[in-house]
Write a structure and sequence with these properties.
539 residues; Rossmann fold; 24 strands; seven-stranded mixed sheet; GMP Synthetase, Chain A, domain 3; alpha/beta; single chain; binds adenosine-5'-diphosphate; eight-stranded mixed sheet
Length: 539
């Protein structure tokens, strides 16, 4: 039978067209890199995106060319976010916190032809430009007045480029499976790996995001998570898709700076746990409240129970714990409040919120043992977590082999158990698991419990070799202030939640824990640091 429906390519340009047509005046605020907080809306962001697309074409951009973008979350970045794919280009997000050699590697590997950069980040590019033979043009995302002096000749000025462009540029059309964006995994071992999103995967992923009970046109959404981290958690797609208002926080990620932006009426925000732990401390110290904020999405690393409790009990802000990864565009699961969870008492609801929720439509999950046998969803059995979906990687950029097994499943590298209702509890990265006497001890559970102590800022559990038990956990702690917490107090706190054999053998205080470019604790570097201090650790 011949089907009756139209072909409608799922291209991201449709999202910004929709927002400009149906939500044109919805405000978008942003802290500019030049300083002041500015207000714009979807109509003007759309106009600038079209002008920028026209400018890229006039500079010689061809369909399929890669444009690297190193920029903070600003309204201007939103126009660039849509202008590049609208001109037929591919938006390659660049994390300014990467080491110089990693940046050089990914810019050359993805074959970036043009680079876009916020003016304060230009020194990073100046430092490596002589190692980037393929880069032809560099566009500084500012106006003439703020163009920095530079040793790079022929820098282009964003505002000067777009101002003379005519309005009404027609987006470059094409197949929905064309490449739209690239994000590299931060690569704790080996070279970073490129994940290439298609127009289709980004549109479907944004729709899945919207269907996960998270946002609506009544929301004012502030993505604290940078657009360069894991596809910006797709918020630059899902917010205009639902016609939400937005607040873009710029480069000031201090609790004070973020609080000032939250005061602009933000109802929904999203970031990694460390950002929220710092903000909660700031609120406490300054006796502040969060009257507008309704929901906070916390993901990228496990969210301690104490953070969920404080947000919900003290500030009346609902926490949506989420899990995902660059390879999944990134949403894998989100713990939204289904009716059955709303009905629960506070303790049971918190137990559920320690999981990362369940998968939205279009994401499939399973757990297996090391032999590949699928394991039951009984809330207890732990195994390797695998995924399949409409926005999940199949093959990394320029690799010869697929990243999935023969049946299309991608190994997330995470360990998890799943309840009969589909709620996923992430227990570890598979390379970080601690196995003591044949039993697994969840490093994430130990860390989250220790962080519940008011004097503990960060905690990292590591397995160290042991002659009798194979491995035993030790816990590294960073204190929240100048006063070191008492070891026995931390142990007593943990003894309330763990059996004796699960408790760490030792607690070590450090001044600093090594982090990755995306702000997560790097267990690899931490192991090296401990080895330097005399611990016998396999690296
Ligand atoms: P990067 O490693 O570059 O920061 P990702 O954001 O892709 O990039 O990292 C994904 C990994 O982060 C996941 O595989 C998982 O180990 C971890 N992660 C993400 N969200 C959570 C969460 N809510 N709880 C525990 N771990 C998480």
């Amino acid at each position: 039978m011949q089907a009756s429906m139209q072909e409608f390519p799922l291209r991201v340009s449709e999202i910004i067209d929709h927002a400009a047509l149906l939500h044109p005046d919805r405000p978008v605020f942003g802290r500019s890199i030049e300083g002041p907080i500015l207000e714009t809306n979807w109509r003007d962001i759309h106009t600038d995106a079209k002008k920028f697309a026209a400018a890229l074409i006039s500079l010689g951009l061809k369909k399929g060319d890669v444009v690297g973008v190193m920029a903070w979350n600003t309204p201007r970045h939103l126009s660039v976010w849509y202008g590049i794919p609208g001109a037929g280009g591919i938006n390659h997000t660049l994390n300014p916190r990467l080491f110089a050699d990693q940046l050089v590697y990914i810019i050359n590997h993805a074959q970036d032809r043009f680079l876009m950069v916020d003016f304060d980040l230009l020194p990073i590019i100046e430092n490596i430009i002589d190692q980037l033979p393929l880069v032809e043009k560099i566009i500084v995302m500012t106006d003439r007045e703020h163009m920095p002096d530079s040793n790079i000749p022929d820098l282009l000025c964003y505002e000067e480029l777009i101002t003379p462009q005519p309005e009404g540029f027609d987006w470059v059309q094409g197949d929905e499976t064309e490449a739209c964006g690239i994000c590299y995994t931060s690569g704790t071992t080996g070279d970073p790996k490129g994940v290439v999103y298609t127009h289709r995967s980004n549109v479907l992923h944004a729709m899945a995001n919207c269907a996960a009970d998270s946002a609506s046109s009544n929301d004012r959404i502030m993505p604290v998570v940078p657009l360069f981290h894991a596809n910006g958690w797709s918020i630059a797609y899902s917010a205009p898709m639902v016609g939400a208002s937005m607040v873009m926080p710029g480069r000031d990620m201090t609790p004070k700076g973020l609080f000032e932006m939250l005061e602009l009426g933000v109802t929904l925000t999203a970031a990694v746990p460390t950002i929220w732990m710092q903000l909660l401390q700031y609120l406490e110290e300054n006796n502040l409240q969060l009257p507008n904020l309704e929901k906070v999405i916390i993901g990228g690393a496990s969210c301690p129970r104490s953070v969920v409790e404080t947000f919900q009990n003290k500030y009346d802000v609902q926490v949506l714990h989420a899990w995902g990864m660059t390879e999944m565009s990134p949403l894998g699961t989100i713990c939204s409040f289904k009716p059955e969870i709303m009905e629960m008492d506070a303790k049971n609801r918190l137990d559920i919120q320690e999981t990362v929720g369940h998968a939205p439509f279009s994401v499939s999950l399973k757990i297996s043992d090391d032999a590949g046998t699928e394991l039951p969803w009984d809330g207890k059995t732990q195994g390797r977590l695998w995924t399949k979906g409409a926005a999940v990687v199949k093959r990394y950029l320029k690799q010869d082999n697929d990243a999935v097994d023969a049946n299309g499943w991608f190994d997330t590298g995470d360990m998890a158990s799943i309840t009969p209702q589909g709620y996923v509890r992430i227990t570890d990265r598979s390379k970080d698991v601690i196995k003591s006497g044949g039993e697994w001890i969840s490093s994430i559970a130990l860390e989250n419990c220790a962080v519940g102590h008011p004097l503990v800022a960060e905690a990292a559990a590591i397995g160290v070799p042991h002659p009798k038990w194979d491995e035993r956990p030790i816990l590294v702690i960073i204190a929240a202030g100048d006063t070191l917490p008492d070891k026995s107090e931390i142990m007593a706190l943990m003894a309330q939640s763990f059996a004796k054999w699960q408790l760490p053998d030792d607690i070590i205080f450090m001044d600093e824990i090594p982090h990755t470019a995306t702000g997560k604790i790097s267990k690899l570097l931490l192991r090296k640091k401990l080895a330097d201090q005399g611990y016998e650790l396999p690296l």
